Amino acid sequence: xxxxxxxxxxxxxxxxxxxxxxxxxxxxxxxxxxxxxxxxxxxxxxxxxxxxxxxxxxxxxxxxxxxxxxxxxxxxxxxxxxxxxxxxxxxxxxxxxxxxxxxxxxxxxxxxxxxxxxxxxxxxxxxxxxxxxxxxxxxxxxxxxxxxxxxxxxxxxxxxxxxxxxxxxxxxxxxxxxxxxxxxxxxxxxxxxxxxxxxxxxxxxxxxxxxxxxxxxxxxxxxxxxxxxxxxxxxxxxxxxxxxxxxxxxxxxxxxxxxxxxxxxxxxxxxxxxxxxxxxxxxxxxxxxxxxxxxxxxxxxxxxxxxxxxxxxxxxxxxxxxxxxxxxx
Length: 329
Ligand code: NDP
Fold this sequence. Notes:
By secondary structure, the chain is α/β, with parallel strands linked by helices. It contains 14 helices and 10 strands. The protein has helices at residues 25-29, 32-44, 60-72, 101-115, 134-146, 160-172, 191-196, 198-203, 239-245, 248-264, 268-277, 292-298, 301-304, 310-320, and strands at 5-7, 14-16, 18-21, 49-51, 80-85, 120-125, 150-156, 180-182, 207-210, 284-287. Helix 4 (101-115) links the parallel strand 5 and strand 6 (120-125). The model has no long low-confidence stretch (mean pLDDT 97).
């Protein structure tokens, strides 16, 4: 099915509804050749957004992606590339992370060097920084835009209140505010996207680039009855991720979801990704893949959306039993 595009929030930036991220894969779990095969396939299928961050493989993910972009020679106006600042690249000193003007400016400069690019299309504040006044962060992002180093900015895992604070300050001072938030969103993690942000989609025109749509692979069904080798949740140092994601409760739901997917003639990852795409407040679903075959499979989610009729969506709700409640006003 042909790629679909959507404006990122109220901005003029049109992003493909499926995009490709590099967390844990580029510069770490997979070879540079595999990374190139993933990006090439994605680009050829109409994916125009590649997501990255300073902390991914401590800067190496940006280097690998930048080298591929250079090698492929794709027109600079044909793709969107992002980075994110907050976690630093491993330095522990207080000036080496966070959302201060100092770190944001230095991190942006360093990301551009690693990517070998003149500007980033999207620059995210990877987490809120309780130690830096929001005014300083908004001013800095605005200035980076004025300097031509970034084109748009956004937030990741900020609360609706923090996003609104940034908007209020930007508005009062005629500065450019954030256009997008990058939250986790999948069948198990729903509250922010479905409830917390529901007002601000309308008021500020928030776009969303959602992460871990398969809950780090659990929604592929491959952890159901055994622990497969060579997968993310078996990687050294990621015990915390395994603990957080791989619970018996989730596996029970995944087994039932798998049966429903089979009934529809879909694979479970494809059904799970299509479910994310069905949410009109999701601008793009960021895919992760360690193998080309996964990406090829996952791209079928675009065409699978039409099979998720209201009746099927209700059956999914009945399995999940986790629809977030709107507060009673
Ligand atoms: P997913 O939840 O979709 O997990 C992707 C992983 O699941 C793959 O790397 C692969 O891991 C496995 N997988 C994917 N497809 C299949 C398939 N068809 N069959 C079997 N296994 C499959 O997404 P990510 O967690 O990777 O998140 C996507 C992107 O979001 C990241 O790359 C990053 O850009 C962004 N992100 C942003 C965060 C933020 O704080 N802003 C945080 C996390 C991610 P394996 O083969 O190793 O099992």
